[in-house]
Amino acid sequence: MSIRKAEKSQVNILLVDDHPENLMALEAVLSSAEYQVIKATSGEEALKWVLKEEFAVILLDVQMPNLDGFETARLIKRRKKSKDIPIIFITALSQASEHVQKGYSSGGIDYIFKPFEPAVLIKKVEGFIKIYQTQARIKTQSHLLQQHATELEDLNQELKSTTAALRKAEALARAIYDVSVDTILAIDSQRRIVNANSATKAIFGYQSSEIIGKEASQLIPELEQSLAADNTKLLCTIGLPKKGKPIPIEISLGKAILDDQYLIVCSIRDITERQEIEKARNEQYELLEKLVQERTLELCASNEKLQLSEQLFHKTFEFSPNLMVIQSMKDGRLVDVNESWENITGYRLEEVENLNPEMFKFIEGNAIMLFPQEELLRNVRITYETKSGMIRDGLLSTEVLKLKGERCLLWVVTDITERLHLEKEMARLDRLDLIGEMAAGIAHEIRNPMTTVRGFLQMMKARPQHNENQEYFELMMSELDRANSIITEFLTLSKNQAVELKMDDINVLLKTLFPLIQADAFNHMNDVRMELEEIPNLMLDQREIRQMILNLARNGIDAMRPGGILSLRTFCVDNEVVLEVQDQGSGIESDVLEKLGNPFFTTKENGTGLGLAVCFRIAEKHKARISIKTSSQGTTFDVHFPT
């Protein structure tokens, strides 16, 4: 059960009985504003209450299940806190002496037999409560007395400690007063000296006894003016010694009250030596300040030059067309990369905190030792890989520099990919020029006899006696025609061959050639698709552009297996007209890709190796360029015409 919190004037009474009706009867009898009645229906519950609350008296039923009244009483008496609680047994059992004796031995101090007289019960309970209250008052008074005694003892100890501390402080003050190198004067309100220490002799030349009772102005003429300023605690003035010139002194002022007498305490120090030191120090300071100013001007000039140098380096680093990387020589991390690095490699600084060892390789194929080395490199041929996987060529140089006090290595990569490509292209064009010049020189000499031979073959073919050999004549004439077409291709390679440029539409040419290309694709069981966007007219040599389209289309058809699709497209991009020929072949090997466009290079059994060479020459004559994209899914040739 729960109980309300008892008022301070109330005391607790514990009623223990396993019959609720008995508890109610007891509660009715003992109900009072001075008591708080707590009920328990078992010995176990009673023990719990005893652990939680204090009780003036316990009324305990003897006969209860599990834990009877006698055992409950014994357990209560075993606990130090509850052993003094008076227990009254209430029982309806025998009043035999042995039964009563058992109750007293269990810790009970009284018996009430049922049925009981309410008045008797009330009187007994009131008696025990008065005893409890008296004991409580005695305990409280005893506690207060003990508390007061402790406080008095503490005050006495504090007084002793304070007295000892005061004596110690007085002795210490006297020792300081006597041994101080400063003159200490005590001056009364009449500005007369009432006390002085022995240091007065050292500074002013007077014995203490000589100046006691004298006016302080005899030693310190300007003291009165200084004392007029209430806030003055430290002043520098002039002191008058017994003999000799006035001396500079420093006075620390303090105020004290001793035996109701107002005193001014002056601690006086001779500062002659200190002023000389300060004068020398000021002279040194002025000299040092002058030197610092001169050095500062030098440093400012040097710093300005350094800033200009750093700005120049920063601009050179940031806007150089070369790839530049600054790498820490301490731990190998990248400190900075320039814009050209980011644009060409595709990597930003945060993506390449540490360089990939496989990214840079010497031209022989060995990976470069990327951790900063003392040995510097100069224009070493390398290859490097971009973020997209492209392999590019470059010349690598390194230089050691200091950046914010840290030793770093500057990597400078001059990209020569385009230069090498141009060199290869120029070599290829030179070969084309040579072949073209040769073709132009000998074409006339070869074609004349070929024309004569073909004419006689036609005459002989027309004679009746050669009817049985018609297929041989056809074969010989077709081979002569094939030789003539090869000579024509040779002439196309000639750099100096004239072209007839006229405004024309590539879309119209594609539509004209589409049936021919479609028929060729059909023979190879392939298909052709054409997607033409609106494009501007261009200056074209129609005959040569037709030849280029047919060469690219037939190469694409030859590259595909049956069922492939050849795509022909035109579109505009970046001020260029693009003619695109895309096949679905197996792609071009990298070693073959490098040789494409070289005269006489072919992968076909019956090819002449002139088709793509002619295409590149035609593109050059039209100031166009051919780009190639290839993969295992096919190859795309893009011809870019400037508009």
From TrEMBL:
<keyword id="KW-0418">Kinase</keyword>
<dbReference type="InterPro" id="IPR005467">
    <property type="entry name" value="His_kinase_dom"/>
</dbReference>
<dbReference type="InterPro" id="IPR003661">
    <property type="entry name" value="HisK_dim/P_dom"/>
</dbReference>
<keyword id="KW-0547">Nucleotide-binding</keyword>
<dbReference type="InterPro" id="IPR036097">
    <property type="entry name" value="HisK_dim/P_sf"/>
</dbReference>
<dbReference type="InterPro" id="IPR036890">
    <property type="entry name" value="HATPase_C_sf"/>
</dbReference>
<dbReference type="InterPro" id="IPR000014">
    <property type="entry name" value="PAS"/>
</dbReference>
<dbReference type="InterPro" id="IPR011006">
    <property type="entry name" value="CheY-like_superfamily"/>
</dbReference>
<dbReference type="Pfam" id="PF00072">
    <property type="entry name" value="Response_reg"/>
</dbReference>
<dbReference type="InterPro" id="IPR003594">
    <property type="entry name" value="HATPase_dom"/>
</dbReference>
<dbReference type="Pfam" id="PF02518">
    <property type="entry name" value="HATPase_c"/>
</dbReference>
<dbReference type="InterPro" id="IPR001789">
    <property type="entry name" value="Sig_transdc_resp-reg_receiver"/>
</dbReference>
<keyword id="KW-0902">Two-component regulatory system</keyword>
<comment type="function">
    <text>May play the central regulatory role in sporulation. It may be an element of the effector pathway responsible for the activation of sporulation genes in response to nutritional stress. Spo0A may act in concert with spo0H (a sigma factor) to control the expression of some genes that are critical to the sporulation process.</text>
</comment>
<keyword id="KW-0067">ATP-binding</keyword>
<feature type="domain" description="PAS">
    <location>
        <begin position="169"/>
        <end position="222"/>
    </location>
</feature>
<feature type="domain" description="Response regulatory">
    <location>
        <begin position="12"/>
        <end position="129"/>
    </location>
</feature>
<keyword id="KW-0597">Phosphoprotein</keyword>
<dbReference type="InterPro" id="IPR004358">
    <property type="entry name" value="Sig_transdc_His_kin-like_C"/>
</dbReference>
<keyword id="KW-0175">Coiled coil</keyword>
<keyword id="KW-0808">Transferase</keyword>
<dbReference type="GO" id="GO:0000155">
    <property type="term" value="F:phosphorelay sensor kinase activity"/>
</dbReference>
<dbReference type="InterPro" id="IPR035965">
    <property type="entry name" value="PAS-like_dom_sf"/>
</dbReference>
<dbReference type="Pfam" id="PF13426">
    <property type="entry name" value="PAS_9"/>
</dbReference>
<feature type="domain" description="Histidine kinase">
    <location>
        <begin position="441"/>
        <end position="643"/>
    </location>
</feature>
<dbReference type="GO" id="GO:0005524">
    <property type="term" value="F:ATP binding"/>
</dbReference>
<dbReference type="Pfam" id="PF00512">
    <property type="entry name" value="HisKA"/>
</dbReference>
<protein>
    <recommendedName>
        <fullName>Stage 0 sporulation protein A homolog</fullName>
        <ecNumber>2.7.13.3</ecNumber>
    </recommendedName>
</protein>
<feature type="modified residue" description="4-aspartylphosphate">
    <location>
        <position position="61"/>
    </location>
</feature>
<feature type="coiled-coil region">
    <location>
        <begin position="138"/>
        <end position="172"/>
    </location>
</feature>
